[in-house]
Write a structure and sequence with these properties.
Shape: globular
Radius of gyration: 17 Å
Structural class: mainly alpha
Number of helices: 5
Distance between the termini: 50 Å
Order of helices and strands: EHEHHHH
Largest sheet: 2 strands, parallel
Oligomer: single chain
Strand order of the largest sheet: 1-2
Low-confidence stretches: 117-125, 135-143
Helix content: 25-40%
Strand content: 5-15%
Length: 143
């Protein structure tokens, strides 16, 4: 797959986020893709092997424990019939996006200042996380 990236401009910074999930957490429409890819590597998101999602030479921002659609499509939030078919879609996309943007902000600032980027632990305040944790079924149990 890396040969497909040969013509990317070298003056641009690239970042990657990959995903993979266990078979029992893959939404129904992605199961056949997951099964086919699992013959090569079970670490796939139903559409892409985890290593094919990484742009060579990019900064790997992390791996999401979700299927391909769960990261991109908020189907679980809609009351349409499709949410019965796409059955494993709860994923805190906004939290992932915010973490990515915070990293990029820090990384881009390091380019302009010449200071190496060391973002440390990027974490939202608990009050900011709660709506997304609830959607993904990750609410904290209160004593």
């Amino acid at each position: 797959m890396s040969k497909n990236y040969g013509n990317l401009p070298r003056t641009i910074r690239y970042y990657s986020v990959a995903a993979f999930e266990q078979e029992d957490r893959i939404s129904i429409p992605l199961l056949s893709g997951y099964t086919a890819l699992a013959k090569i590597d079970p670490r796939n998101d139903g559409q892409v092997l985890f290593y094919d999602a990484i742009i060579p030479g990019s900064t790997l921002l992390g791996y999401a424990k979700a299927d391909h659609w769960a990261i991109a499509l908020p189907i679980a939030r809609n009351a349409y019939i499709i949410d019965k078919i796409v059955n494993n879609n709860a994923f805190p996309r906004e939290v992932l996006l915010e973490a990515i943007l915070k990293y990029l902000e820090h990384d881009m600032a390091s380019v302009s200042t010449g200071i190496e980027a060391v973002p440390g632990h990027l974490e939202l305040e608990p009050a900011d996380r709660e709506p997304f944790q609830a959607e993904a079924g990750l609410e904290e149990k209160k004593p």
